[in-house]
Amino acid sequence: MQQRNDQWLWKRNNERVVLAIQMSNHSWASDTRDLSSQLTLKQMNLATIEQIHESKAGREPALSPGQLAYVINAVAFTCQSPSNFYGLNLIDALKHQLNGSRVPSGAFLNHYEYGLSVLALCNSNAHVQANYVDVLLRGMRSDYTHRFGSDEASMVISAVACLLQRDDRFMQKFDHNLPARIDHLLSHQESNGGFGNVHSTALAIQALSAVVDLKNSIRLILEYSRCSTAVAKAQQWLCGAQEEDGSYGSLYTTAEALPALTSGTYVHNPSHCHVVNEGAEQSNPYINYVWEFFQPSARYIEIRVQAVNGRTGSVLYNETLRDVRKDTPLVDIVQQISESDDMFVYETEETAWGNVITSMYGIAQDGHSYSYWTIKHGPPGSEKPAHVGQSIRY
To answer: Angle, nearest 10°, between helix axes 90-98 and 65-77?
Structure first.
């Protein structure tokens, strides 16, 4: 904190420092005893907006996917909405970078940056497409090692832990993959408990702590003990690596180490945003206003989309879409899914009753066998067929 300037910011890496502080102390952003936290957040937001607009104008380089991911994580951890950040949709901007990207190539040099980007989507409760998860799965060599060592493995494990925390059905994809990644990461731990240097050790602690937090997963029960032991040894080494002034040299390295000392992780817990100022003797109108503004916008909802072959019962598509703007027509939602997921293929026909789906995943309707695609909508378990000519909005 002492390194903040007269603008209540740091010289650089503001989003990383804010993220580190919030990872270490979940109440920092809502602390009513000291307005400096709100002032720092406001300044960080303004600096981010200015940088984005300057890059659009060509006066500044565009944010890399990694930089944007750090911004989104900082915004999410401080209970703001990345999909409606002062009118900017940071989620769409990141997905634009992710779509069609291969690692290593283009915008992503390695799986560290890619894992950080998937982590940003997960922490924002945004839709994580199946192909993003597939890229994470392909991030290991055949011998279950990472090209760039422990740092890359740590960030990917953190991303996987977030996905599992949000929906344990992802375990079907990571059943064997995650334990192998943990094995690879632990192979880098030295006898003194460290992982080579302060930065790598801090990342490893955060990743392994995220696995320990997955206590609802029976399949990972064997991983908890060895991850907890490794974390304790690494934290002991990290404490001994501090310099006399309490730092770890550079601001960037200190920021990475700070949450590791408290077992903080890159996996955001949304419940930390629900209770604010509980038990305060008196309310502060400014703080209440700021925190209300930080809450995710009520103009966005969550819907579940399924495509099912009624003849065979096979599920062709099954995803939960988050941050869907209210009053969005179903036809627009289907089109957005198709644009972001190459596997989601459909055809429609304009009729007197509006757009009619005639084919999904190569399965066309057939009037001779009375096979048609039907749209059902409603609360889970109570879906009802749409009426002919009905306009469906969410």
So the answer is: 140
- The closest of 202, 193, 196 to 252, measured between CA atoms, is 202
CA distance 241 to 85: 38
Question: Three-state DSSP class for 326?
Answer: coil
Count Cα atoms within 13 angstroms, Cβ side, for 286.
10
- Read off the tokens for 215: 């206590």
- The CA distance from 85 to 87, in Å, is 5
Query: What value does the mean pLDDT take over residues 271-279?
Result: 52
For position 4, what pLDDT does the model report? 56
**What DSSP line would sit under 252-308, residue for residue?**
HHHHHHHHHHTT--SS--GGGGT--STT-SS--HHHHHHHHHHSPPTTEEEEEEEEE
Per the DSSP assignment, residues forming a β-bridge with 359 are 347, 364
Q: Which of 6-10, 48-52, 233-237, 332-336 has the highest mean pLDDT?
A: 233-237
What is the spatial distance between Cα 291 and Cα 295, in angstroms, rounded to a whole number?
Answer: 7
In Å, how far are 18, 166, 187, 293 from 289, measured between CA atoms? Answer: 20, 29, 49, 6
Q: How far apart are CA 270 and CA 296, in angstroms?
A: 11
Q: Is 109 exposed, middle or buried (0-12, 13-18, 19+ CB in 10 A)?
A: middle
pTM of the model: 0.68
Q: What is the enclosing helix (H) or strand (E) of 324?
A: strand 315-325
Pairing between β-strand 384-385 and β-strand 376-377 as defined by DSSP bridges? antiparallel
- CB-count exposure of residue 389 (10 Å: 0-12, 13-18, 19+): exposed
With CA atoms as reference, report the closest residue to 170 among 184, 155, 181, 160. 160
Residue 251 and residue 229 in contact, taking contact as beta carbons nearer than 8 Å:
no
User: Per residue in 309-347, pLDDT tens?
Assistant: 877 878 887 777 766 767 777 777 787 777 767 777 888
Nearest residue to 253 (alpha-carbon basis) of 13, 89, 33: 13
- C-alpha 207/C-alpha 161 separation (Å) is 8
For the chain, first and last CA: distance in Å? 44
